[in-house]
Design goal:
By secondary structure, the protein is mostly helical. 67% of the residues lie in helices and 2% in strands. The chain contains ten helices and two strands, in the order H-H-H-H-E-H-H-H-H-E-H-H. The longest helix has 30 residues.
Length: 254
Amino acid sequence: MLGQFVFLPLLMVDDTPPQSMIAQLGLTVPFLGWALALLAWVKFKEKRSIRSVGLTAGAFRGLLVGSLVGFGMTAIVVAVNLIAGTATLGSFSWGALGGVLIVLVGFAIQSSTEEIVFRGYLSQALARWGAPAAFLLQAVVFSALHSSNGGATVVTVLNLFLFATFLAAWTYVTGNLWAACAWHTVWNWAQGNIWGAAVSNNPFATRMAHYSTVDGSPSWLTGGGFGFEGSVVATVMFAAATVYLLVRHRRARS
């Protein structure tokens, strides 16, 4: 809210799509306020360590693995649609690399804040009813909030739910948030600023490529105007990754 109604008007920035680099930062950087407020609540009101929300040891490995998997999964969506002839990519604009790297900072703040809020704090608060309830309820809230961006379909709502379930499973298995934070950051950033697709119905002007759907192509495959969360390719990946994580964890404990 601060980013949209205070920061952008002060800079005289038009945030109508596709959003400029400054507009994009203006909408993502204020998430830092959310994170700091919640961590202050945990520290001073609940009298527990900030690490307790999932910011524990294993940061380097989690960030590395999460980043690689996040980028790889966006690349799979692109590759499937290029092979199927349902989307085009265009040539890469390497001159945009500087701006693309700058907005990575904004996405890191925004995505990590959402992980702290949903997979960290909210999942813990709901865990009193058991892990399945925590998985389900945080995913319902997450998908409902993101569906309000507009352009949502049955596939996008399902994928947002599976998105949240997948990251909840990863956090549960690893015992920390680092991989989820990195995956979420790179998934959004690569989708919007590397490949040039929309991110939850938000297109960005700062991008290296231009992911465009071919006229007449099914939106359930390409993702349509909503972005990769609107593609059944993402559905398969999120569901398969969740099952893999939980099965591997169960075998490791048996």
